[in-house]
Amino acid sequence: MSTTANHDNHAPSEKKVTLNGLIIIGFFGLIIAGMLLAVYASRYVPETLARLSAAVYLTSDGAKNATTSPQSPKPQTPVVTPEVPTTPTVSATSTGNTPRVADETGYIPRTTVYNPPRTVQTTPRYYGYPDLALTNVQGGYFSGGSFIADTSIASNRDMGIKFTVRNIGTNIASGWRVLVRVEGESDAIAYGGLLYPNGYQNFTLRATDLENGTLTTRIDVDYTNALQETNESNNTDSVDVRIGSGGGSSSSRDVSCSLDASDTRVNDGDRITLEWDTDGNPSYASLNQGIGRVDEDGGTERVRVTDDTTYRMTVRNSRGDEDTCSVTVRVD
Question: What is the rounded average pLDDT of the residues 303-308?
């Protein structure tokens, strides 16, 4: 009996020792894991953060449609049909006891008649499938809030991509999305609107803090295949934009310009303001259309437009580096 009692008294002590040992091993394990994590972070995290330093934004205008949704059937407007007037006969008084009939001349009884309701077709008949087509894909940069189309931009500019998605099919498109991949950067996604046949939607991508070099941007419409379309081959496209002049060089020899107009669609004889900006310390700047030499550091010029006109600026520095930029104004 005494032997059994002693065994029972020592059992809790052995369990306690085992538990303490596991706690100590776990504590040292956490220390070792933390050291390994610190080494990993020092080697790989900075590189990852550098790749994510750029910012990519994808925005869109609202869907634009020439037609609206079908309307509910409406009853035809009631038609009021007059009956042929009846002139009452006035009886002559034959004797003093015969009553005189009231004179109702001019009274016309009216009766309202309703035609059966019918449906009036106010929109095209939808059939078949939609067909989203990617069109007007342009690369360029932003200056003063305006998009300038160009395949080569200065290193201090924000890259821009503009494109249009149009429904060239015969049915309604909804529930679709757009995926834009900028080489080496995070993907951007935007939701498409409700597009009727011939409807369209404009999209704009803006990317900042990009490294110098040629970047390829790929656009994929309805990348989740949410729609069954008539043609699936017109949903993708890509555009290349070179960041920094001279094959990615950002030296002080590079020179660039941007030219904007206060209005790009005017009436004949209207006046607009041309505004330009330069980069790279140019020593010479001029505008065509008879304007000539202008301030190479940037400025404005008021001009009168009488026809579709393309204004082109040329800038040049003392080493012979040259760049051109342009804007087109159309007359209605």
Answer: 91
Distance CA 51, CA 55 (A): 10
Q: How far is it, in rounded angstroms, from Cα 68 to Cα 27?
A: 68
Query: 201 pLDDT exceeds 60?
Result: yes
268 membership: H or E segment, kind and range: none
In angstroms, the CA 101 to CA 243 distance is 102
80-112 pLDDT, tens per residue? 444 544 444 444 444 445 445 545 555 555 555
**Distance (Å, whole) CA 243 – CA 156:** 9
Degrees to nearest 5, angle at CA 183 with 181 and 186 = 55
For 319-332, what is each residue's pLDDT tens digit? 778 888 888 888 88
DSSP 77: P
Q: Indicate left, alpha or beta for 327 from its phi (over 0: left) and psi (-120 to 50: alpha).
A: beta
Structural domain boundaries in the chain: 54-65+126-250, 251-332
- Alpha-carbon distance 27 to 19, whole Å? 12
pLDDT band at 120 (very low <50, low <70, confident <90, very high): low
* 251-332 has the same fold as 54-65+126-250: yes
Strand partners, 143: 146
CATH class of the structural domain 54-65+126-250: mainly beta
Does residue 254 surpass a pLDDT of 70? yes
**For 251-332, which CATH class?**
mainly beta
